[in-house]
Amino acid sequence: MPPRCINPPSAARLFVQLSAGARQSSSILEVFLPRQQQIRHLRTVTTVQHPRSSNPSVHHRAVRHHASLESASSRSFARRAFSSTSSRRRTQAIRNPQVDEEGKEMMLEITPRAAQRLTKIMEKDENPYLALRIQVESGGCHGFQYRMGLVTLPQSLAPSSEASIPDEPSPEAEAEMAPSTTTTTSTDSLQQELTEDDTIFAFAKDDAPVEEGSEEALATAPKIVLDVPSLDLLKGSKLDFTMELIGSQFKIVDNPAASSSCGCGTSFDIKM
């Protein structure tokens, strides 16, 4: 007669042990799960491996530990999202900001290349109060066209400044603005005087913040000026400085309201 175990395990007990072992095992693919799912899985596995203790204080400490992990992960994600958003926004309205019908701020972004070119013109002319006016008019081969030209901001915007401000841009500065192959810088019918409804945008250098009404930004930062109708047609666009074989020029790009444009980029049609 073959030997037999005195206390053989029952089939039910073997099933329970195998089931518990299967639940406690983890897959190697768990490292590819997102952060939040890894934390939830960790909480589930920990609960299986360490059943609720009869001591309430031990259980409460474990719950607080997992809650702190989830809270730390959420705060880390929020900080990353905020920092990436703030670093992209380098163009600020420093005078008369406008909002559209939906309550969103109307913005025309200045690219770093355009800001660098404007800064070079300001330094060469020794006039920090130069600004580029952008004005949209009806006409052109696609219904609308924009014109650009240099204007000098009035000293009343920065009354504490001791710098001598010329009444208008010098011919040398105008020559820097006017490439031979584009009509976007024609100053014919361009508004020269700053009006109460005009909006001024400034480019923040080296991620330095600029504030509305900042005299320092008016005196040092590259600036553009738009009236309300022009800003409404160009909101969401970018002012860029392009260097091409046919010439270098300031140019409006990425206009969300434009349905088509001409080859030279000075005329465009809007979406109806």
Automatic annotation (TrEMBL):
Coiled coil: none annotated. Signal peptide: none annotated. GO terms for molecular function: 2 iron, 2 sulfur cluster binding; 4 iron, 4 sulfur cluster binding; iron ion binding. One of its GO terms (biological process) is iron-sulfur cluster assembly. Residues 67-98, 158-191 are annotated as: Disordered. Residues 71-86, 158-167, 176-187 have a biased composition (Low complexity). GO terms for cellular component: mitochondrion. Residues 106-155 form the Core domain. Belongs to the HesB/IscA family. This is Core domain-containing protein. It comes from Pestalotiopsis fici (strain W106-1 / CGMCC3.15140).
